[in-house]
Structure formats: C-alpha cells, structure tokens
Design goal:
heterodimer; A: mainly alpha; B: 457 residues; alpha+beta; Immunoglobulin-like; five-stranded antiparallel β-sheet
Amino acid sequence: MTSPSAEPTRPNPKTQPHPPHRAWLIGVCLWPAFLSAGVATMLFFSGIDPETLRLQTIPDWEISRTAGYSIGFLMFWAVAALSSAVSIFLAHPPRRHYDR
Amino acid sequence: MTAESMYAAHEKIHPREIKGRFQTIRKATVFALLGVFYVVPWIRIAGEPAVLFDLPARQFHVLGLTFWPQDFFYLTLLLVICALGLFFVTSLAGRVWCGYACPQTVWTEVFLWMEHWTEGKRGKRIKLDKGPWNREKILRKGSKQILWISFALLTGFTFVGFFTPITDLLSRAAAFELGPWETFWSLFYGFATYFNAGFLREQVCLYMCPYARFQGAMFDRDTLVISYDEQRGEPRGGRARGVDPASKGLGHCIDCNLCVQVCPTGIDIRDGLQYECIACGACIDACNSVMDKLDYPRGLVRYTTENALEQKPSRIMRPRTLIYTVLLVALITAGATGLALREPVRLDILTDRNALYRETSAGQIENSYTFKLTNMSNATHTYQFDVSGPRGITIETDPSAVTIGAGETLSIPARIQLDPSDTTGIGGVDVTVTAKSMRDKAIQHSETTRFRTPVGR
C-alpha cells in the first residue's frame, strides 16, 4: 500500500470505522452467526422435539434432549459462521486490484 | 495483509471514576438488574422454582405459569413487545437502554469496579499498564484476574441455573458431577462474560451491536440526548478561579477534559452527538462537579433535546411516540387476554388405523381411538370424557375417569359407539369429544374427530 519511505501515519479511528483487523474479522464472522443460530435454534426446536428427531433418525444413539439442543445450536452456528466467512471472503475485492 | 497497517491498534480506555446523580442511578440499576439475574434462579414458590426454563422437559415455568412448545406464540409476542418497547423508549429518551440496562454495559461496569478495587484509580491504572512486570503489577493484575474469573464462573453457573434447578446443580457441581453440556454452557457463558465485560467492553457497542447502528433512525429533534451546550460553553479555555469568563471572552467550558476522561467509550461529548455515546451520563456528572466548584450553573453538559437546545419547544407526544404507544398497548392487551383465556388442558385424538369400524355383539357400530390428554395446568386433575354428535352416541374410555399430574400427558384408549340406525350412511360423521376436569368445570377442551360408519347402509 504505502512505500516504505512514507511516514507511518496513525489514521484517526473515526475516519476508519471498519478496521479490517483479523480479530475484528473473526468477530464479524462469528457474532452475527451466533445471533442467527440462536434464533434458528429457538424456531426449530419449538416445533421439533430433539427426542422425536433422534428416534426417527438414529434411535441407537442415546443422547439427552439437552445434548440435542446443544448440538443443534452448535450446528446452526457452524453453518451460519461458514456463510459469514464466505461473505467476508467475497466482500474483499480481488487482490490484484490494489496489491500491485 | 496490507490492510492491517491501516488499522490503529486499539488503545485500552481507562475511564476515570466519578460520583454524581447519574452514576448513582447507574449503580442502583446495576445492583437491581444483576440482583434479579443472580437471585431469581434461587427463588422457589411452593417448592417449585419460580423461573425455570426446563428445556429437557420442554416446559417453561414462569411465576406459576407453565408454557409448552405449543405456546411459542407467546414467546414471539413477548419478543415483539420488547423490541417495540425499546423503540418507544429510544424515541422518547434516547439510549437509556445502553447506558443503564444493557447486559453488556451492566457487566462491564461491574468488571470496571473490580479493576478499580485491584489496580486503583485511572492514573494509577495507566501507569501500571505502562510499567514493567514487577511484583506489584503481577499481584494487582493477578488479583484482578482472580476476581474476574470467579465472577465470570458464578455468572456462567447462574445462567445454567435458569435451565436446571439451581440447588440441584449446586449439589452436583460441589461433587464434580455436572453433565458435560452443563459444564460446557457454564464455561461458555462464563467465558463470554469475562471476554465481553473484561476485554471487549465498549468495542461490543461500537462494532458488534446492531442496535447501536440503527438507533439513530428512531431519534428526532424531540428525543432526549446528552448534549454539550455549545452556546454557553464556547469559546472554551482555562482560567483562574473567580475570574469572570466574560471579561476574558470565554464561555463556561474550562476545557478540563474531565468529560473525556470519564467516558467509558472514550469520546468527547463536546464534538456533538456520536453513535459511540451510550448515554451513561458520566460526562454530565463530571461536568456538574466542575461547574459546582466554579460556582457556575449546572448543566453545561446535560440531558436535553435538539429542539430545547435551540430554545424551541419539545414535545413528548408526537406521531412516532403515539404509534409506538398504540401498538404496544394493543399487543400487550392481546397477549394478556390470550394468556387469561389459555386452556389448561389439551386433547389430541388419534384414530385407530387398523380397523375403520367394527360391529359390537350388541349390534352397535364402534370406532376405536387413542386420546392423548395433556394437563397443562399446575395441579393434578381428574378428567372425564363426553361426546356429542348424532343422537344416541356414547363414549367409553378405559378407565372412565383419568387422573393426570401437572404437566403430564396420558394416552387413553377410547371407544365411541353409535346405533347403526342412527348412521347417515355416507361413510362417516363428525363427532366432538370433550375432556372435562371433575374438579373445575371451567377446565375443559373439545376436539372434533371423524366417526366412520359402513358405507351404503
């Protein structure tokens, strides 16, 4: 971006509202996914009893409802986080445009 | 990554502690809200937890009411009411939610208190952070971590206590017999508290909170905001005590920077309204304390509206607030009515799939069913069944009266009989089955099902 001779400038955070810091990107990926997973879990399990689901799919796997809810939530979170991650990846312009 | 060099590293904000009217209110709300959070799981009414979200049993117990997955509607309604309530309060009084009630700011406040107890006041904390890792720094930072981690663990444990009876949870935790998922969620919530309130703090509000981004849309010129009175304050500048500012051509702001030092999000309120402002009122208290010392009138920084700052009248009732009020009242009324009229018993009728009908030895047409009766009330009830339909229809259940405990479901085999002469001969007729509590006649529920008869008789 800047040539090495250029003076290191400390940008004003107010003019840089979206610092693309790695930790920040991880937050942007995981946090909305967490919220969405929460909503999805509530909607899904209010209609479907994990116990019924288990009996109809893998009856031999004896897990509690709590485990069912938890696994469901973590799965929703993982899927939503994957979607977030792809969005972040695609939102970055292709490198060659600015990294000459 | 080149973009990283663009980013100014985050500097930790060390808010100066301040006393004053708004900080007293804030402290009171922190105690009230966290008090509710930590105490509620322990409260029992008639031997049952007052609030228990019993996910394993798929029942929510709230102050004597039991909610089932079928009642999901009420949860949705509650969330809609909460959202509208937030919009309503925002349009009236700005971000009071952020400053006083949001879990993020409330827990951050407590974590800041602990930082203050262990590391000292603002100046001392800044010095400690810059200084070398000597004995004192290790001791002070170490004791802060111990406080933080213990408090976070207690928080995580209490959170799980909303889903599992907490006394039971405590006895199992003491014996190291917590289930894997209870352990996981305790630690997860504890870690989230520790990380959000200890480290991320104002960054959650700045970068993660959707409400902080869109609250501006609910603001208008009559919304209560924290504002610096520029006309009165400017031009700002230092002066000796007792000097008339007008003689030096100065306003009332002595540029002491105290309002910036106390700000938990590190902004300067004198720059105008900013989305970083969580409306905690720390700058008001700081400025008032300075105004008092200088014998200037209070309120150079104050809660006011844009209209009031321009000496125009402010209105509380305006189309925006009226619409929110009407919607809120309507939804709350609808929800309360629904709750009051909710039937505490539920009947599901399953028809026997093996035989459409059979003829009894007495020559009657008989259909078999399985009734699934759920007692959704909080007391044991004994129920009997009635059937209505064509004249002469009768019902038999086995046993004839069933006793079901609170929150339990029972399957009851049932037979409905009708004399063939009464059947209309088109293959079936609708009949209505009613389950009635013998103790409380008001508790009853009817369900309609099909009674199948031979075709062409």
